[in-house]
Structure formats: structure tokens, C-alpha cells
Amino acid sequence: MGPAVAYIRVSNPKQARSGLGLEAQQAAIKAFCTHHGYKVEAEYREVETGRGADALERRPELAAAMKFARKLGKGSKARAAPVIIAKLDRLSRDVHFISGLMVQRVPFIVTELGPDVDPFMLHIHAAVAEKERNRIAQRTKEALAAAKARGQQLGNSDIGRLRKAEAQERAANLRAVIEPLRGLSANRISAVLNDRKVAAPRGGKWQATQVIRLLDRLDLAPA
Question: In terms of domain of life, where is this protein from (predicted)?
């Protein structure tokens, strides 16, 4: 089994106290390593936001994980063992931050993306996810500003409707891709979308539950 380092992060102390975010990431990494033949030699946990130009300076556990990965890989062709993360946003939500990590010459593996995603594709996934988040945030901001200009106050239910509209728009953009797959199981459709590198709503790989929601929004769900 190849050596690896696990890195787990939550954004705030409340998430850390609940244990749910940490445990879910740990379970995903454990399952991935068992399936792909990695042995976790050390696990690093961090409670810190992933935002800001100085994010790495504020994340000593990530720096320590990378240092230990280099130690594990010393003398090998790879020069560093992989650092394994459950989801890309646990590494960072900032594409520039991830770009900076790529020059550290420590391989990162994101379990939801699979073992064969190279640094270039990891960067692409991060860029696409960031663009989608920024687009949704901007449209929500514009809608809130327009409502305020009309003297209207929006509550959580209104914001929820805006987000639902965004999801409906994303679904409409995928109709041409999904319609030819109608009749296949949700698991099979998710596999096809992943094989074609179609971006999932939150980045990473498509899951059957996401496909079911997508089919429902497009009125393509089985009767």
C-alpha cells in the first residue's frame, strides 16, 4: 500500500464541535484509501476559513501535512506522498490559492474527483466551481439590490426562491445532454456525466441524488 497523508478542514469552531463535518470527511478518505490502496500515515485537522491571500499562513496544519508528505516521499520518484482531501472546497474555495499549492510539488488527491485527476484538471475544476459560485452570488446580490430599490425586504424564503431559480436555469442548460440519457438509471446517468467531465452543481462528481433532482426539474423523471 502506498503512503498518504489525510487533511481534513472545517471552516468554523461550530462545525468542529459538532464533529459531523470532520467525521464525514474522515469516512470519505478512509473509504477512498481502502479502495485505491493507500495507507494513511498521518491525519491533519484544521479549523480555519479557506479564504484570503494569506490563507496558507493561517493554516499551519495544511503546511504540516505537506511537509510530512514530502518526508514520506523522500527518495522516491514522486518526491512526496499524496495529501488526500475529501472535497475540493476543503482544500480551498479560491482558485488562486489552489494554483499556489500546485507549485509546491506535493500531489493532492480529492476523493470525490478520483485518483487520476492531475494538477491541471484540479485547477480547472477549481476555476469552474469558483466561477459558478461567483455568478450565483452576483445574481443574488443584484436581485437583493433591485428589491431594496423597490422598497421590498427579502427574507430567507425569498432568497430560497432565487436559489431555486438558479438551479432551474442550470438544469435547463443541461437539457440537451440529459434528454438522450432518459430511461437510464440515475446511477448510470451520473456515471455518464462523470465520464464526459460534465461539471456537477457543486463541483466534483455527479451523484445519483443530484441526477434525480435534475430529472425532476426538467420533468424527465419516470412517472
Answer: Bacteria
